[in-house]
Structure formats: structure tokens, C-alpha cells
Amino acid sequence: MIRKLVVEGITVYPTTKSFNFVPGINVIVGGNDSGKSHLMKLCYAMSKWGSESHRRDLPEIWAEEKRLRQILLRVFGTHNLTAITARNRGNGTARVRCSLEGHKVPPGTADVDFTFTAGREEEGLHITKAPQRYLEENSVFISPREVLSIFPCYMQAGKRYPELLDSASWELCRALEDEPRQHKLSPPLQQVLDSIEKLLSGSLTRLNGRFYLTRPDQEPMELNLVAEGFKRIGSLGLLIGNGHIRSGTSLFWDEPEMNLNTSHLPATVNMMMGLCRAGVQLMLTTHSLFLLRELVIQLAEPVNRGLTRRFFGLQPAKDNRSGVITSSGDSLSEIDHLDSLDAEVEQADRYMSMGSGLL
Q1: Over the Cα atoms of the chain, what is R_g?
Q2: Is pLDDT larger for residue 105 or for residue 117?
Q3: Strands of 210-214's sheet, edge to edge?
Q4: Could you please report the per-residue DSSP string of 116-149?
Q5: Quick count: other Cβ atoms within 10 Å of Cβ 156?
Q6: By the 8 A CB rule, do 75 and 163 touch?
Q7: Does residue 23 surpass a pLDDT of 80?
Q8: Are 112 and 61 in contact (CB under 8 A)?
């Protein structure tokens, strides 16, 4: 699990910013161009790098530098590291410090510190502090892009030209390719899976390399005929069933409200609570006020009060040069006011002032 990230000179973060994450639910809130997806992708890249070393006996630094560079390029979908440096900072040098923890990996033993400089590609990334241990847990990224309906195309293209696909979608397809395991799920994970099947009124199955929605007393339905939001929720169920999402997993879920009716969001948030109770570290990005309020409501319920939670507010600075203003806290009320949320509140106030007779 990722516990701390300190960035300087990365994309919209020209000055030093520090983020402390919790093992439970972490919610990154911000509007467009606030850097929330950049923060999420960087966290995922570090988690992925920290858990994918092929050697547990401290590989050579140069090999780890090369692997880290490749992961950063794939996750951000760029051709060079220059693209993800904050070039308005002056010297174009970025620094990242990250702390990871996991099973048999005590705090401090999986820390990494590295820098890279714009315009210096192959030799530009340097690890100044390497981990003493690597993680055994895995990480999963669910992006706003739905992949199940184009799964066959992604798999064919990805196996031949993986460098042409964005890493998040390709890695998700590879995880979805695994068959369901014949194992008993923990009660919280089983409850999440049951909730998913209830929302879909069925379950997803794979036949001849394609996914279908199977409902009682109906022919299997091709996923092109299924609502976009349901397909993303269905992906979550498949990943629970094949063991990719389990206790210790870091799940990065970018805008879970995407293409879902608000009437389905309470059930979706309930799934999030179940995942955290099952030992999954959850990282979310959102700009939905409805989703945020539902999170606050359900986190206050007795069954969820023991879950750790952290909210992060991101907002672009007014001068367009200072990057992003950040705030954080253990409750939504502790983060600074965000323009993206204030707009929703202000519209609700204007609507209510019109009176019910104008509906």
C-alpha cells in the first residue's frame, strides 16, 4: 500500500507537495485541470513499480531505474519524461519520494527517492534511495475508459504492440483475462460481489474471448448493449472473482461516478465500504458532490466508523504559475473550498430559490 508521496517539479506540481495516505479510503477531489488524475497515476506507477520487481534480493540500481522510467512513460502515456516535468519551474528537474508498506514489509524499508530532468532521457532518471524490500501485494487501476466491450481488440493489439496502448487499460485487460478462481471469498468481498450482481441483475461471463452479461432466463447479452457504467462495475466483480482484488490490494478507481445514474451511487459507495472492510486500500478521484456526500453519510454509519479515511482537495492556483493548491483532512469539511464543488452548491441554491411551482 502507498502511504506517503512527496512530489516536486511534476506536471502541475512545480513546488513541493506532500500527500499522506491511509490504508482505508482516500478521496482526491478536484475539477478539470486540477491534477487529480496526475496524482492518481503517479501513485499507481509507484505502487506498480514497488510490487513488480522480478528479484527480491535488491536488483541493480540501473535496472530498477530503467524499469521505473518505462512504467512512468506507460502509465502517463508519454514518449519522454520531459512531458511530465513542471517546466515553468525553471530547471525542469523533478523529484519524487514515496513510502510503500505491505505484508512483511515494515515502514521505511520500501521507501524510494528519485529525480529526473527534462531533456535528459535515458540517463536522466536517478534513484538516490532504493527500497530494501519489495511488495508482494498487487495494484489495480480502473480508469474512466471502459475496456470490456473492446477487450478482444485490446488483447490482440496489446500482445503485439503493448507500447501503443495506455498502460492502465492494457494492465486492466490483462487482469481481466484471468479465469475466476475456485476459492472462498472473505465475507466483505462476497458481499461486494453479491451487490454487484444485484445491481447488474446478473453476472459477467467470458465466452470465446468476449464478455457477456448473463441474467436468469435470458440469453447472454453482448456488452455493447449494456450501459457503460454497468460495464465498469462489472469489471470490479470480475477482478474480485479472479483474485486480482483481495486483501492488501491497492485499488485506484478514477471517477467511479462516470456514466452511472445518481440512483446507483449509494450502492456503489456501499461497495467501496465493503472493499475497505476487506482490507483493500482504495484511492478515488471525483468531482461529484453527490458522491462525496454519500461517502460522508456512509462513513458515519457504525459499521464503517473504524475505516480510515482521508480527503484531498486540489485546485489550480489563480496565477497559473504556482501549480495546484492542495489541502487534506480526515473529513470533507477540512479541505479548502473548491470552485468545482461550489458551483454545484450555488446552482442548487438558485434552483431552490425559484420555488417548487416552476419545476
Answers
A1: 21
A2: 117
A3: 203-207, 210-214, 221-222
A4: EETT--TTT-EEEE--SS-----EEEE-SS--GG
A5: 11
A6: no
A7: yes
A8: no
Q: Specify whether 258 is located in the same domain as 127.
A: yes
- Give me the half-sphere count of Cα atoms (radius 13 Å) on the Cβ side of residue 282: 28
**Grid coordinates standing for 190?**
462476497
* Residue 287, CB-side half-sphere exposure with 13 Å CA sphere: 18
Q: How far, in Å, CA of 339 to CA of 324, rounded?
A: 13
- Euclidean distance between CA atoms 219 and 240, whole angstroms: 24
Domain interval for residue 294: 1-137+250-359
d(CA 270, CA 288): 16
- Give the separation between CA 214 and CA 326, rounded to whole angstroms: 44
322 SS3 class:
coil
* Residue pointed to by grid coordinates 469539511: 333
Residue 219: which pLDDT band, with cuts at 50, 70 and 90?
Answer: confident
Angle at 165 between CA 164 and CA 169, to 5 degrees: 175
* Residue predicted with more confidence, 313 or 152: 313
DSSP structure string for 138-184: -EEEE-SS--GGGHHHHHHHHHH-GGGS-HHHHHHHHHHHSPPP--P
| Pairwise CA distance, residues 100 & 334, whole Å | 25
Number of H helices, E strands in the chain: 9, 14
- 233 with 255, same domain? no
Q: 486500500: which residue's cell?
A: 281
Whether 118 and 264 map to the same domain: the answer is: yes
**DSSP strands (E only) in the chain:** 2-8, 17-20, 25-30, 93-100, 112-117, 126-129, 139-142, 203-207, 210-214, 221-222, 250-254, 281-286, 309-316, 324-329
- Domain match, 163 and 241 both: yes
| Contact (CB, 8 A) for 106 and 191 | no
Residue 262 and residue 357 in one domain: yes
Helix (H, G, I), strand (E, B) or coil at 18: strand
Give the cell for residue 189. 468481498
